[in-house]
Specification:
Elements: E1 3-7, E2 10-13, E3 18-25, E4 33-39, E5 46-51, E6 57-59, E7 67-72, E8 77-82, E9 91-99, E10 111-112, E11 116-121
Length: about 120
């Protein structure tokens, strides 16, 4: 059974930083990709970044240069380093696994965590 557990969310001021973590268990299929998504009230779920098993990444234009996705395969943990945060980054952030080739489309991901809230105040 695949489990994804996010942590690291919180409240910060504009310009601040947070690092999200996603501990994965029961997921070892190297053919697929993992990713971070976010969902703000009144908006559709948005792909933030994805990463392949061997480290290749793709980042959404809206966060490029500010957010970095990474992973520690030995710890089965996915990370999202978020710098220079803006109020528009406020959302629930989700970790996902089992996606397609560097996909940022939520419909292509099979497994989801429960999410961690990020709130950025001005």
């Amino acid at each position: 059974q695949v489990q994804l557990v996010e942590s690291g969310g919180g409240s910060v001021q504009t310009g601040g930083s947070l690092r999200l973590s996603c501990a994965a268990s029961g997921y070892t299929d190297s053919r697929y990709y993992m990713g971070w998504f976010r969902h703000a009230p009144g908006k559709e779920r948005e792909g933030v970044a994805s990463i392949g098993r061997w480290g290749g990444t793709r980042t959404a234009d809206s966060v490029k240069g500010r957010f970095t996705i990474s992973q520690d395969n030995a710890k089965n943990t996915l990370y999202l380093q978020m710098n220079s945060l803006k109020p528009e980054d406020t959302a629930m952030y989700y970790c996902a696994a089992g996606g397609g080739y560097y996909s940022l489309s939520p419909t292509t991901y099979k497994y989801w965590g429960q999410g961690t809230q990020v709130t950025v105040s001005s």
